[in-house]
Amino acid sequence: MNSTELLDVAETAARRGAKCLLDWVDEFRVSEKGRADLVTDADFASQKAILNHISDCYPDHNMLGEEGLNKQDGDSEYRWVIDPLDGTSNYVHGFPYYCVSIGLEHQGELVLGVVYDPNRDEMFSAVQGRGATLNGTPIAPSRFLSLDQAMLVASLPVGVTGRDIAIDRFLRVLPEAQTLQRTGSAALNLCYVAAGRIDGYWSSNLKPWDMAAGVLICREAGGAVTSIENAEFTIENPSILATNGTNIHVALQALLTETLF
């Protein structure tokens, strides 16, 4: 298929989904899928807008989305992986760090990704083998070499407790980094690694739709993506470590995989 056409469809779908998010800002209702795991009317409205546009263009393509979307037509080689609102808790609280994320697989391989931040009007995009861009301008990771120079971000599980391994890892890295944050949007975190705004990001609790687009964008920009345990990365594995690809990657892996007390 024509990659330029696919990218245009993805970017248009992302903008339509994001418009729903902005339209619902003062109108949404919130419910919990689990403890501290929020979903809003805006999530569903955004997913419907995205699904409608992609389905109009490619009615035979498969779809996987956060809000119960799982369309499988066995003959198609394509699957869209959609997060209509990555950063729902931020959205609910009016914290402007959330986005729409749309990835595309061909025969199980990531070939396209877009992540759109409607608050900054920033469209991160990548097509396999063609690099990554922000609003059409090529991006690349930072070149910092050590943790004491690095700005890092981590995701913590929804409803995390003090005994969780994620807390141990966070505290282990904290004194070694120049700064360590928790932001609430995996997709944007991956794009920020790609664009050199942060130097590393990790999580052990993501879903395919959280990272499909961001992983391709990060890799195409020149970043490194593995599992925390240094295994080959797949979007079905909730463990991810994404960095600028310098010694920071190796240093973080060593810290994150130390034997726990």
From TrEMBL:
Residues involved in Mg(2+) binding: E66, D83, L85, D86, D210
Enzyme class: hydrolase
Keyword Magnesium listed: yes
Catalysed reactions, semicolon-separated: a myo-inositol phosphate + H2O = myo-inositol + phosphate
Pfam families noted in UniProt: Inositol_P
UniProt keyword annotations, A-Z: Hydrolase, Magnesium, Metal-binding
GO biological process: inositol metabolic process; phosphatidylinositol phosphate biosynthetic process; signal transduction
Cited InterPro entries: IMPase, Inositol_monoP_metal-BS, Inositol_monophosphatase-like, Inositol_monophosphatase_CS
GO molecular-function terms, A-Z: inositol monophosphate 1-phosphatase activity; metal ion binding
Cofactor(s) the record lists: Mg(2+)
EC number: 3.1.3.25
Protein name: Inositol-1-monophosphatase
Naturally occurring in which organism (per UniProt): Gimesia algae
